Amino acid sequence: MDELNDQRQQRLKKMETLRGLGIQPYGARFEAKDHAGELLRLHGEKSKEALEHEEVSCTLAGRIIGLRRFGKAAFAVLQDGADRLQIYFKQDRLGEQSYRVCEELDLGDWIGVSGKLFRTKTNEFTVEVRTLTFLSKALHPLPEKWHGLTDVETRYRQRYVDLIANPTVHEIFVTRSRIITAIRSFLVEHGFLEVETPMMQPIPGGAMARPFVTHHNALGVDLYLRVAPELYLKRLIVGGFRRVFEINRNFRNEGISTIHNPEFTMLEFYVAYADYTDLMALTEDLFVRLAQEVLGSTTLDYQGRQIQLAPPWRRWSYQQAILEVNCLDPGAIRDRATALATADRLGVKVDPDADLVAILNEVFEETVEPNLVQPTFITDYPIELSPLARRKDSDPSLAERFELYIAGREIANAFSELNDPLDQRQRFESQVARREAGDDEAHHLDEDFLRALEYGMPPTAGEGIGIDRVVMLFTNQASIRDVILFPQLRPER
Fold it and tell me: Given this model, what pLDDT does residue 97 score?
């Protein structure tokens, strides 16, 4: 800590020296006409002779991340976004006053430069600086060994340092933006209308999750940060919109893990006059589009496994997946006692008081999910796990629902929407009973949503896709924290 304070004091002295030279250490506007990445792309392969002949001028800005001084000359590395470019200062070229400014530079400082492109004696592509503009003094030095910073605690808490130190992290978030842009373009091209729904809701709904609670002082009521936008988007279908989507922030008061963050980004979309089978084809098309635009291929590598996104993807019923993965006879999952004994034999820990559906779901999560590496639609879930989904006409105990799994992880959840208000009321009442029995994640009863359904909602299919998990997949990241700029962390001690 003392060393850090000493470095800060030295930088403060340099800041005062700059002021004494008539230089504002926190400058104003600078027109960076060029970018390091573009200069490298356009001219980085040109020979020394070609650069001398063309006399390419440039003006760019960035942060100094490398600095070597040699008397009346100095080399620096300028970082511009994720790209880095060497720059060269020479007193004879800059003049004594400007070079004096160069002597007060530190790692982390921001500068703007104009000059000519050339190659050094060691053939390094470089900008020979003709004019130097000081833009911002860094008072806090970059952390020790910041080149390739690996300490995850520092990386997540100080993402600004992580982005400086690790250009690959910068690229992850550029890719994230490209993915979201591609999703939006795909849906708009397919006739969807982008909408916005409330993030603070009087009744949380749309997912089985524990909400965050806040209080509105003026209204004198508690409100909930949304766990999902589903019930509001379906209200819009009732109102006559045929295709709607929202790229939304959701909040669930749950644990933190490599695949869970309390605040996360979801895509939800709804299509009138469709069912869940229609959404399977649409989902395949969407992922192929993303893969081609972001990766240039429908094959990707994820954590040492090769994933093939080219359709068609496997369709596998929930119950059949449990039976086939575990080599079971159908009788093993038909009644509670047998299912409990089966779970024990498979080494799956379950609550001894759990009902049949809860037991089967534990078995599914423990034994089936890890095996779903290639894209797979798991279909036809028990109706008890799907309180907002339409029943299958051929088997009312099951829901017209699928979940998409890739690399052993749930990526999407979709179903034919329940549009029968009387059936929906019964299911809400069942959820209320579960809440009263201690299930904090069970649904609340939403009278306004039921009223909306009583005005009539056409047959509709809806889907939610976890954007953070899609970004993890497309950028080969094992933890959700690596694809969220500012993940939730415990307070610093």
Answer: 87
